[in-house]
Give the backbone structure.
Amino acid sequence: MLENPRTWLALLALLGVRVGLALLAARFWPLLACKACRGSGKHFAPRLLGGFRRCRRCKGSGSRIRPGRRLLNMFVSSSD
Ligand SMILES: [Zn+2]
């Protein structure tokens, strides 16, 4: 199946659509909920340590910058 060039073209087109969508998403929704704390900015800590602690990944903000956003920033800053 993969020897067929049309299959490769279809895969490439799919990839292009995916990258395009990711860049679009990064353009309009640059922030995602932090995966580590699910957007709450807090973590459950063991009781001995006192309940909640601030999420280290997002530094308590609960959101993180989409990976594609950095790529987009690179493009934008390089074209200026
Ligand atoms: Zn977090």
